[in-house]
Specification:
The complex is a heterodimer of chains A (405) and B (417).
Chain A: E1 5-14, E2 17-18, H1 20-28, E3 35-36, E4 49-50, H2 64-67, H3 72-88, E5 100-105, H4 111-124, H5 131-137, H6 141-150, E6 156-159, H7 165-179, E7 184-191, H8 195-205, E8 233-241, H9 242-247, E9 254-263, H10 271-286, E10 293-295, H11 302-316, E11 324-326, H12 329-332, H13 339-352, E12 354-355, E13 378-379, E14 384-390, E15 395-402
Chain B: E1 7-15, H1 22-31, E2 37-38, E3 51-52, H2 60-63, H3 66-71, H4 74-90, E4 102-108, H5 113-124, H6 143-151, E5 158-161, H7 167-180, E6 186-193, H8 197-205, E7 229-237, H9 238-243, E8 250-259, H10 272-285, E9 294-296, H11 303-317, E10 326-327, H12 330-333, H13 340-354, E11 356-357, E12 380-381, E13 386-393, E14 397-404
Parallel strand pairs in B: 4-5, 4-6, 9-10, 9-13
Antiparallel strand pairs in B: 1-7, 1-8, 2-3, 6-7, 8-14, 11-12, 13-14
Helix pairs in contact in B: 4-6, 7-13, 10-11
The chains are: A alpha/beta (405), B alpha/beta (417).
Chain lengths: 405, 417
C-alpha cells in the first residue's frame, strides 16, 4: 500500500491567466488563449494562430539576479514552482533538502535557446556558438534552475515523451513518495512556443490527414475541428506525503489515487483499437471507482477526439454518459508539457466543485457523443477526476485524482 | 508480507565506436582499444577539436529498408539495432510475455537533432532547396523510444528521460521501478544518441572538449571526447526470467538519483552531491559500501568532473576507496551523452559476469587530486560481485546504479534486506 499522496500547492502560468486565481477565473469563464501569433513571421506557414502567454514580468516571482541565468522556459517553470511553493505554505528551510525533489516533463524544453544557438552557429560558424545558450538548451536545464533556485537536493529528473511528459513525471513521483523516498516532490513542467517549434508542427501538420490549418482555433470534439493550435505554459503541483502535509496543517486540494500506463502503436489509425488501449489506461487508473470528471487529452484532431471518446465508452460503458468531460486544451492550445497546467485545472475542479468547459463547441460530431461540458462551466461535486495524457505515438497515461477527506 | 520483486537483466545490445555488437564491444574494452577518431559526420575544420567516438561500419542495409532509412534518424538506427541484439540475446519468444506488461523507457540526449539540424541548415542557410519534412520527425526526444516500441509491438509503460548525460541511467532506474511496482514484467531500457553539431560545438564552446582525446583522471586531461551509440538492456522480473529459462546476465539491486543544487553546468567540487547519490543507491540496494568491488566511473576527463567524482567516491568509501578498482570506458568510446549511462551499465554488467575490469586508457601522468586506482591502460582480471555505475549531468544531476552478479539459482547472500 504505502503512503497516501496529496496535492498541497499549485502554480500555473497560462495564456488564460497567470497565477492560480486568474487561471481558474479563465477556466470557469471559458477564456480563450488562442490568438494570431506574434513575435515571428508566420505568413509563409499554413498556420497562423497560437496560445501564447501574455507578457509576464518574472521579477514578480524571482530575483532579478537569478533571472539572468534563465531563458524563457526556465523563467516560466521556475516561476510556477515558486507559485506552487508559496501556495503550499511549505517552508523549505525547515525541510530535509534530500527529501524534497523535483520531477519535470517537457516536450522540447528550451527550443528557443536551441534555435538561437543554432542560428548563431549557422550565421557565424563556431564563434557563434554561445556557451550561455548551450547550457540552457539542454532539456533538463529547467529542473536544474529550479533545484538551484530553491536548494532542492533530492530526486531530480526530467521526462520528455511528447504529450505524456508531465504525466510520466507524476506517475514516478507518486511511486517514490508512496514508498517514502521523499516527503515532497514538485511535479509538472511546460513548454514554450518558439519559431522553429511552430515551424516543425506546422510543417508536420501538413503531413497529417487533416491538412491541419489551425485557422479555426481549438474545437475539441466539435464536428468542425481542423487540427490543433500550438499553445504554451507551465504548471506545477506540490505532491506531498499525507502525514507530512497533515503535520504542518497544509491545505489539501486532492489526493493522487492511482494511474494507468499503456503503450499503443498505430501504423494506420483504428479508432476502436485506439479506444481499447486508451480505455485500458483509464480503467486501470480508476480501479472500479465512479468517475465524475475527465480532464481530456482531446486536442481538436479527429484522431484523438474520436479515439478518446471511444475509449471512455469502452472503459466505462453505460457510465460514460454520466461523466463530465472537458478539454482545457480548447482554451490553452496543445503542447507536450500541458499536463502540469491541466493537472492544476483538474485539482481546482475538485477543490471548487466546478467543471471547466470545452469552448468553441458548436457542431456535434456523431462520433463524439458524450457530455463535453460545452462552452459553459458547470457546478458539480467532483469526487474523482481523471487526467489523460495520450501521446501521439503511443504512451498513454491516465492519472486519478480524488477529493481528500 | 509482500515479497520485494527482484529485477534481472536478460538481454544486452550495443552500438559504439569500439564495436557494433556486445562481443565486439567487450573485446575492444578488454583490449583497451581507442575509438576516438576524426569526425566525418560534419565539418569540424573551423573548430578547436576534430575527434570523437564516431560509430563506423554499421550494416544499415541489413536492418532497414530504404523507405525506413528516409524517416529514421541516426539515433533511431542505433537504438533499433541495439534493441534487436538485446532481444535476440534474451531469447524471448513472442508467446513468452503479455504485451501489456512489456514496456520501454529510454534515455535521450540530443536525440535525432542531427536530422533536424540538416533541415534547418537547408532552411536558414538558404541553400535554395526545400528540405524534406521527414527530417523533422526526429525533433521529439521520444522518437527512438516510440520506434522501438512500434517495431516490437510493446504495450506496457512507455516514457523517455531527458537529463542528457545521465538520461539512460535514469531510464534504467525508472524501468527497474516499473517492474518493481508491478506495472510490467519486462522492460526495454537504456538509450541512444548520435553526434551532432549542437552538442559538439556546445561542449566546445564551454571549453569542455579535449583537443586530442580524453584522458580521464590523468593530470594532463583537458576535457571530454564526445561519442555516440546505443546501449539497450532488457530488464525482467526474476521469476519471469527463471520460469522461461532465460540466461541471466546480472541483477539490478537499486539506484540513487539526486541533485547538487550547486551550478548549472559544473559539479560541486567536493563531490558532496555525487557522494549522496552513491550513498542513496547503496542504501536503496541494501549494500554495504565495503561490499562494492568495482566502480564504473562517469570519468568524463573534464578537469572538474574527475576531481569531484574522486572526492565523492572517497566520501562514501573512506579508507577503502583506494582499494576499489575504478575505470572510465569513456576513454575508449567517448562521452555518448544520452546513451552513456546505458553503455556503461552494460560494460559494468559484463565486468561482473566475466570477471574482467576494462581499463582507463591514455592514463600516464597521475594527478595528486585524483589519487585512486583507475585501472590504468590494462584490463584487470578480478572477481566482481557487486559493482556501481555513475552518471552525472549538467545541473549536478547525479545517478548511481548498483548491480550484482547472478549466482544462478535466484538466491544471493548480498544486498537484500
Amino acid at each position: 500500500m504505502g503512503n497516501r499522496i496529496v496535492i498541497t500547492g499549485v502554480g500555473v502560468i497560462s495564456s488564460i491567466g497567470v497565477g492560480k486565481g486568474p487561471f481558474w477565473e479563465g477556466c470557469i469563464g471559458g477564456g480563450n488563449g488562442i490568438k494570431p501569433i506574434s513575435g515571428f513571421d508566420v505568413s509563409k506557414l499554413s498556420s497562423k494562430l497560437g496560445g501564447q502567454l501574455p507578457d509576464i514580468d518574472f521579477r514578480e516571482y524571482l530575483k532579478p539576479a537569478n533571472l539572468r541565468r534563465m531563458d524563457r522556459i526556465g523563467k516560466m517553470v521556475v516561476s510556477a514552482v515558486k507559485m506552487a511553493l508559496d501556495d503550499s505554505g511549505l517552508e523549505l528551510e525547515k525541510e530535509n533538502p534530500d527529501r524534497v525533489g523535483i520531477m519535470v516533463g517537457t516536450g522540447l524544453g528550451s527550443s528557443k535557446s536551441v534555435d538561437l544557438y543554432y542560428r548563431g552557429l549557422i550565421e557565424d560558424g563556431p564563434v557563434g556558438a554561445t556557451p550561455l545558450l548551450f547550457q540552457t538548451a539542454v532539456p533538463n536545464s529547467i529542473c536544474s534552475h529550479s533545484s538551484l533556485e530553491f536548494g532542492i537536493r533530492g530526486i531530480n529528473t526530467t521526462f520528455s515523451h511528447k504529450e505524456a511528459s508531465v504525466e510520466s513525471a507524476m506517475v514516478f513521483a507518486f511511486h517514490l513518495l508512496k514508498r517514502g523516498d521523499a516527503h515532497v516532490i514538485f511535479v509538472g513542467g511546460g513548454d514554450e512556443i518558439s519559431e522553429p517549434l511552430y515551424h516543425v508542427y506546422s510543417t508536420l501538420g501538413s503531413l497529417s490527414p487533416q491538412k491541419s490549418t489551425f485557422e479555426e482555433g481549438m474545437r475539441p470534439f466539435d464536428a468542425h475541428r481542423n487540427g490543433f493550435v500550438l499553445g504554451e505554459g507551465s504548471g506545477i503541483i506540490v505532491m506531498e506525503e499525507l502525514e507530512h502535509a497533515r503535520k504542518r496543517r497544509a491545505r489539501i486540494y486532492g489526493e493522487l489515487l492511482s494511474h494507468g500506463l499503456i503503450g499503443s502503436n498505430f501504423g494506420v489509425l483504428n479508432y476502436d483499437k485506439a479506444g481499447e488501449f486508451l480505455g485500458k489506461a483509464m480503467v486501470n487508473a480508476s480501479g472500479g471507482r465512479r468517475i465524475d470528471y475527465i480532464c481530456a487529452a482531446a486536442n481538436s484532431t479527429r484522431d484523438l477526439d474520436v479515439a478518446e471518446t471511444r475509449a471512455i465508452k469502452a472503459g466505462f460503458r453505460e457510465g460514460a454518459r454520466d461523466i463530465s468531460i472537458s478539454s482545457v486544451k480548447s482554451m490553452i492550445g496543445e503542447f507536450d508539457g500541458s499536463g502540469g497546467v491541466r493537472a492544476c485545472a483538474a485539482l481546482l475542479a475538485i477543490h471548487h466543485g466546478v467543471i471547466p468547459p470545452t469552448i468553441n463547441y458548436s457542431a456535434p460530431d456523431p462520433d463524439c457523443d458524450l457530455d463535453y461540458t460545452p462552452n459553459e462551466a458547470r457546478e458539480r461535486k467532483v469526487n474523482t477526476a481523471l487526467l489523460n495524457g495520450f501521446s501521439n505515438g503511443g504512451s498513454n497515461i491516465s492519472i486519478l485524482f480524488g477529493r481528500y477527506g | 508480507m509482500e515479497v520485494k520483486r527482484r529485477i534481472v537483466v536478460t538481454g544486452l545490445g550495443v552500438v559504439s565506436a569500439v564495436g557494433n555488437s556486445v562481443p565486439q564491444f567487450w573485446d575492444s574494452l578488454k583490449a583497451g582499444r581507442d575509438g576516438i577518431r576524426p569526425i566525418t559526420l560534419f565539418d569540424t575544420s573551423s573548430l578547436r577539436t576534430h575527434n570523437g567516438g564516431e560509430v563506423v561500419d554499421l550494416p544499415l542495409d541489413h536492418y532497414f529498408s530504404s523507405k525506413e532509412k528516409k524517416r529514421l534518424s541516426r539515433c533511431d538506427e542505433f537504438g533499433i539495432i541495439a534493441a534487436e541484439e538485446a532481444l535476440e540475446s534474451s531469447s524471448l519468444k513472442p508467446g513468452d510475455v503479455d504485451r501489456d506488461r512489456f514496456g520501454i523507457i529510454l534515455g535521450a540526449g540530443s536525440g535525432g537533432i542531427l536530422s533536424v539540424e540538416r533541415y534547418f541548415k537547408a532552411l536558414y542557410g538558404g541553400e535554395g532547396k526545400r528540405p524534406s519534412p521527414l527530417l523533422l520527425i526526429s525533433f521529439s526526444l521520444a522518437t527512438t523510444t516510440d520506434y522501438i516500441a512500434e517495431r516490437f509491438d510493446l504495450h506496457g509503460p512507455r516514457t523517455t528521460t531527458a537529463t542528457v548525460c545521465s538520461s539512460s541511467s535514469a531510464a534504467i532506474a525508472f524501468a527497474y521501478e516499473s517492474i518493481l511496482a508491478g506495472w510490467a514484467e519486462i522492460m526495454f531500457s537504456g538509450g541512444s544518441d548520435s553526434l551532432c553539431e549542437v552538442s559538439y560545438t556546445g561542449f566546445n564552446s564551454l571549453r569542455l572538449v579535449d583537443p586530442v582525446y580524453c584522458k580521464p583522471f590523468d593530470k594532463r586531461r583537458q576535457g571530454l571526447s564526445l561519442g555516440e551509440g546505443a546501449g539497450i538492456l532488457i530488464l525482467e522480473e526474476m521469476n519471469h526470467a527463471l520460469s522461461r529459462g532465460a540466461h541471466i546476465v546480472g541483477e539490478i539491486l537499486g539506484y540513487g538519483i539526486c541533485a547538487d543544487a550547486y551550478h548549472l553546468t559544473a559539479p560541486e567540487p567536493h563531490g558532496e552531491g555525487i557522494a549522496r547519490a552513491i550513498a542513496m543507491a547503496l542504501q536503496n540496494a541494501g549494500v554495504d559500501p565495503s561490499d562494492v568491488d568495482y566502480i564504473n566511473a562517469h570519468g568524463t576527463g573534464t578537469i572538474s568532473n574527475d576531481v569531484a567524482e574522486t572526492n565523492g567516491i572517497k566520501k562514501v568509501f573512506g579508507s577503502k576507496a583506494k582499494s576499489i578498482p575504478i575505470s572510465s570506458i569513456k576513454s575508449m568510446v567517448g562521452h555518448c551523452l544520452g546513451s552513456a549511462g546505458a553503455i556503461e551499465a552494460i560494460s559494468t554488467l559484463l565486468s561482473i559476469r566475466e570477471g574482467t575490469i576494462p581499463p582507463t586508457i591514455h592514463y600516464r601522468v597521475p594527478d595528486p587530486s585524483c589519487d585512486l586506482d583507475y585501472t590504468p591502460n590494462e584490463a584487470l582480471r578480478r572477481k566482481v560481485n557487486i559493482a556501481i555505475s555513475n552518471s552525472f549531468a549538467f545541473g549536478g544531476n547525479n545517478v548511481c546504479l548498483v548491480f550484482e552478479k547472478w549466482k544462478g539459482d535466484g538466491t544471493t547472500d548480498q544486498g537484500h534486506q
